[in-house]
Amino acid sequence: MGIQIISTGSYLPDLIITNDELSNIINTSDHWITSRTGVKQRHIATVETTAELGIRAAEAALERSRIPKEGFDLLVCATMTPNARVPMISSTIKKALKIKNAVAFDINAASSSFVYAISVAFGMMKAFNYKNAIVVGSDTMSQIVDWQDRTTCVLFGDGAGAVVLSRTDRNGIISTCLHNSIDEGNALSCDHALEDTPFYRQETDKGSKLVMDGQSVMRFAIDAFEGAIKAVLYEADKSLDEIKLFIPHQSNSRILKTLSGRMDIPENKLFLNIEKAANTASASIPIALDEAVNLNLVNRGDLILLVAYGGGFSSGAVLLEW
């Protein structure tokens, strides 16, 4: 018996902002953005919250799974942009979907969150004999980027993706890897503003927008990607050549192509959709996986490798048989 991804779903907001349109807001251009990031456009939420994006993606995955809602034991939401402190996004999704029996909680490991959530759900399903789980990745990065900082805001977009995990007679998830390095210089951070109280006054000039040292993040990302890929392959006793498709966190095409060249991964095995969806943080891997499935790039028995890195400095990978 294995634990298998049996269905996928995704949702992107209707509003699309192209690089040319973005150049009307900040001092940039389509050439500048494309050459440095690979992004041509991004979807931006105008009315949807992080939870609402997650609900739409989960609905699609649920419908395709054909599993009755009462059959779910677990719901995990990966996000770094919750639209509320309480209730947690997972419980809002659970309520909207009317999934009464599932244990629900959120995970924040920045852009690695979905890989962490899959790994945790996999472990819990084994430990507690759960039969079915939903894992959602949802982020509204447009809410936390500084739209005056052209080095960061051009990278990101909004969206959500989801998968259904089930116990099956196939191998399913073969190995996972989670890791954290120390971000000595706070190269990727976003402070959370606190309210003053009679007992506490926040004395800081820091804002509540995403701040990134791109060069430091890039150096970490390439090493983290390579380390995570090697770790899950080693644990599973598999080789790079056996992998049918690599689905990385859609962070930056320069980073991903550098990784591809460094590890001799053929570009046709590296699935990228950053050009049209940008970096959607926790949502990027499940959105890309859903697109790959819909394009019939994934077939039963194929080995698929999901790999991510994020703030904190977090990283991880999941190796699975489709």
Q: What does the model show?
A:
By secondary structure, this protein is of the alpha/beta class. A five-stranded mixed sheet has the order 1-7-6-4-5, with helices on both faces. A four-stranded mixed sheet has the order 8-13-12-11, sandwiched between helices. Strand 4 (74-78), helix 4 and strand 5 form a beta-alpha-beta unit. It folds into two domains: 2-171, Thiolase/Chalcone synthase (Peroxisomal Thiolase, Chain A, domain 1); 174-321, Thiolase/Chalcone synthase (Peroxisomal Thiolase, Chain A, domain 1). It is globular. The protein has nine helices and 13 strands. 48% of the residues are buried. The two termini are 14 Å apart. The mean pLDDT is 93. Helices cover 31% and strands 25% of the residues.
Key features of this structure:
4-stranded mixed beta sheet; 13 strands; Peroxisomal Thiolase, Chain A, domain 1; 2 domains; 5-stranded mixed beta sheet; 9 helices; 322 residues; alpha/beta
Write the layout of secondary structure elements.
Layout: E1 2-11, E2 15-18, H1 19-22, H2 30-37, E3 41-44, H3 50-65, E4 74-78, H4 89-97, E5 103-107, H5 113-128, E6 132-140, E7 158-168, E8 173-180, E9 188-189, E10 211-212, H6 214-236, E11 245-248, H7 253-262, H8 274-277, H9 284-294, E12 303-310, E13 314-321
Parallel strand pairs: 4-5, 4-6, 11-12
Antiparallel strand pairs: 1-7, 2-3, 6-7, 8-13, 9-10, 12-13
Helix pairs in contact: 3-4, 6-7
